[in-house]
């Protein structure tokens, strides 16, 4: 088949890899003018880890990834007030756990397919017209193409979803938080393999030391009203400064480094909840269909699972695209909804809104050093409750 994938993040290149494995012709269109790296640090385990291993990516991911030793909660003066040893995650996952920048995973996936696909950067789907044989697609650049299957994998703000299923507001479930991530070069304080977290009622700041001389800053704050996110960089910086004015610890230094950061990413913490991920010869994949939200911590692995299953069901169904898309959703819907429900349930405790809530969280973190408690709290939530068929 001729397949168009919109989006060169994680879900799209994963799908492309498995489609190429089965002999299909793949075109990837990406709105950004060039491949985008960077991004916040993700934890990577479970079925996503297994798939990366099958794809031969783990040696590379081990080189660029991190084995975090400790999550440390600190007070306004930078003193340790709680936390836990991350060995609990190694125990629960059998050592199959790594942390790495989201952009590095995306880069590894894209480079695994880039010489075997037609990649079009700086362009996007402007409109499409479905028929029973496929879809005619018009790109913003003026190109007109026909594809047997079109897959929207552009993330939470999917253009394909908007064109085929309707506006984002119909499917977005805002969880009441905003977050920002950026890196600071030359940051003087370094704590390798330690994730430092500082909380005040309604807002949180974290720092993680990266390779080289960079440090990642992650800010998360409550926004119950769901105010608009500025589109311009100056407006985004102003919003962050207004939300973190007067914050303790190293936050003033983070804000001082904000102007020099060229990779600022700012967005709402939201889920995408849809009852149907496909329509005719068009399917949605990854965050475009079932974003669990930033709080879930598994969006990248779930996107890879989705790409594998979609390609596998296409292989099983042969030329019957409607059957393949229906089976893709049937196999994954319960898993994705359960991950969304889990993230929604923990949203209120992720950034506590009171000092008491912060103390409770710190106490709970200390208990994670107890094996049975860690397995109870973490074990069930990070195990992927699905057996993936051996399609290939």
What does this structure look like?
37% of the residues lie in helices and 27% in strands. The protein has helices at residues 11-21, 46-54, 58-64, 87-93, 102-111, 159-165, 233-243, 251-256, 287-290, 299-317, 321-350, 355-367, 371-382, and strands spanning 2-6, 25-30, 41-45, 70-74, 80-85, 97-101, 118-121, 125-131, 134-139, 144-147, 149-152, 172-185, 194-200, 203-209, 214-222, 265-272, 278-279, 282-284. The chain has a domain at 2-65 and 96-171 and 271-351: FAD/NAD(P)-binding domain (3-Layer(bba) Sandwich). A hairpin with a 2-residue loop joins strand 13 and strand 14.
Write the layout of secondary structure elements.
Blueprint: E1 2-6, H1 11-21, E2 25-30, E3 41-45, H2 46-54, H3 58-64, E4 70-74, E5 80-85, H4 87-93, E6 97-101, H5 102-111, E7 118-121, E8 125-131, E9 134-139, E10 144-147, E11 149-152, H6 159-165, E12 172-185, E13 194-200, E14 203-209, E15 214-222, H7 233-243, H8 251-256, E16 265-272, E17 278-279, E18 282-284, H9 287-290, H10 299-317, H11 321-350, H12 355-367, H13 371-382
Parallel strand pairs: 1-2, 1-11, 2-7, 4-13, 11-18
Antiparallel strand pairs: 3-6, 4-5, 8-9, 9-10, 12-15, 12-16, 13-14, 14-15, 17-18
